[in-house]
Amino acid sequence: MVAAGANKDRGVNFASLKDWLGAEIAANGPVSVERYMRECLLHPQFGYYRTRQAIGKAGDFITAPEISQIFGELIGIWTAAAWTGLGEPERWRLVELGPGRGTLMMDLLRALKVLPVALAGVEVVLVEANPVLRDMQRALLAGTGLPVVWLEEAAGLAGLPSLPTVLIANEFLDALPIRQFVRLDGAWCERCITVSSSPRLSGERVPEGRVRGRLEFDAAPHPNPLPTDVWGERASANAPDGTISEIMSGAAALVAELAILSCAYMLFIDYGHEGPLFGDTLQAVTGHRFEDVLANPGKADLSAHVDFAQVRACATAKGLAGYGPIIQAEFLGRLGAAERLERLAHGKDAAAVQALQMGLARLMQPNGMGGRFKVLALASKGLARPPVF
C-alpha cells in the first residue's frame, strides 16, 4: 500500500496529518474515503500504525489474545491440524498479519509444541508496519529459537521461497481501506473528504503548512456504479437517496496478493457481518472510546466492519475456496475451549480460576465478542476442508 501523496515534495513542513491532507485536497481536490483511511493508518510520518503502540489498557483497544491465553492456544491447535492437512510438510511457513505485540504468536507456538516435528520445520513470518511493535515482537519471541522474518506488507510474501503455508489474521481485515458510495438523485457517487470553506478573518495569517477549515464528507460530482459482483443490481438500484454502501477494496487487494500462495490455509477472525448490507460502518477509536472519524486523522484507530461475503467472493474469484464464516464462539468451542479452560484451571487458586473463566467468557459471549466476531477460512485449490469448518 502506498501512502505517499502529491504534496510530499513541496518542501513544506506539516505539523499534522490534517494539515498534510488539507494541502493535498487544496492541490488535487477531495480524497476518497479509501485514500483517507490509508493515509490515516499508514502515512510514513503521521500514520497511526507507523507511530503508535495502540494495544492494551494504556492504548486504544484490546484484542482477543490480550484477553485470554486460551485464544492463541486454540489457534495453535487449529494450526497444528492445518499443518496435517497440508500433508505434514518437513518445511513450512507460519504467517501472521498484524501480530500486535506478538501475544497470539507466542501462545500459538506454545500450543504447537504438541507436534514437535511441525515446530522443528516452521519458519515464522510476521507482517507488521509498526516499528515499535516489531521491536516488541522481536523481544517476546527471542526465546523461541525459531527463525522469524519480518515484512512490512503482505505483498512481500511473493518474494519469499515457496513453502506450504498457514496464515493467521486476527483483527486485520477491519483496518484495510474501504471505498464508500452514497446514493444521490438515484445514482451512486463515491464518498470523499474535503475541507470546509471558511472565510479568513481580517488580517489573519495562516502559517505555512497549516490549513484553515475542518475536514468534512462530500460526494464526487460524477456517478460511479457499484460493482455488480458485490451488490446485486436490483438491491443497489432500489436503495433510497442518502444510503451508503461500502466496498472492501483493501481486502480484495490483500486476497489477490495471498492467492499466489500455492498451498495454504488462511484464517481470518474479525468483527463484521455476512452481507450485502447498506450503511456506514467506518469508525474511529482512541483511548477505548469512539470519536468522530474526521476529528483527529492519524491519531485514532480507523476501522470498518468486515463484510465476509465480499471477502469470500473475492477469494473465489481468485481460485481459493472459502469456508464460513462461523461465529467466534462456535469456532473456539469446536476447538475445545471448555476442555482447555478445565485443564488450565486444574491446581490453580480461586482467583486465577476466576480470571481464566472471565477471560474465556468474554470471548464466547453470543451477544458480545463470541457472536460479533466471525471466522472465515480460505484454502488453496486442491486442499481438503480446513479444520472445524
Main attributes of the structure:
389 residues; alpha/beta; Rossmann fold; 2 domains; 8-stranded mixed beta sheet; 5-stranded antiparallel beta sheet; 15 helices; globular; disordered N terminus
Summarize the structure.
This protein is α/β, with parallel strands linked by helices and 389 residues long. The protein folds into 2 domains: 103 residues, no CATH class; 239 residues, Rossmann fold (3-Layer(aba) Sandwich), CATH 3.40.50.12710. It has 15 helices and 16 strands.
Mind explaining what this structure looks like?
By secondary structure, the chain is of the alpha/beta class. It folds into two domains: 16-49 and 178-246, no CATH class; 64-171 and 249-379, Rossmann fold, CATH 3.40.50. Helix content is 34%, strand content 23%. The chain has helices at residues 17-28, 33-42, 48-51, 64-67, 69-85, 103-111, 116-120, 131-141, 233-237, 249-258, 308-317, 328-334, 337-345, 350-364, 369-372; strands at 31-32, 92-97, 122-127, 148-151, 165-170, 179-184, 187-195, 215-223, 244-247, 264-273, 283-286, 289-291, 301-303, 306-307, 321-327, 373-379. The strands form three sheets. Strands 2, 3, 4, 5, 10, 14, 15 and 16 form an eight-stranded mixed beta sheet that branches. α5 (69-85) crosses α6 (103-111) and α13 (337-345) runs antiparallel to α14 (350-364).
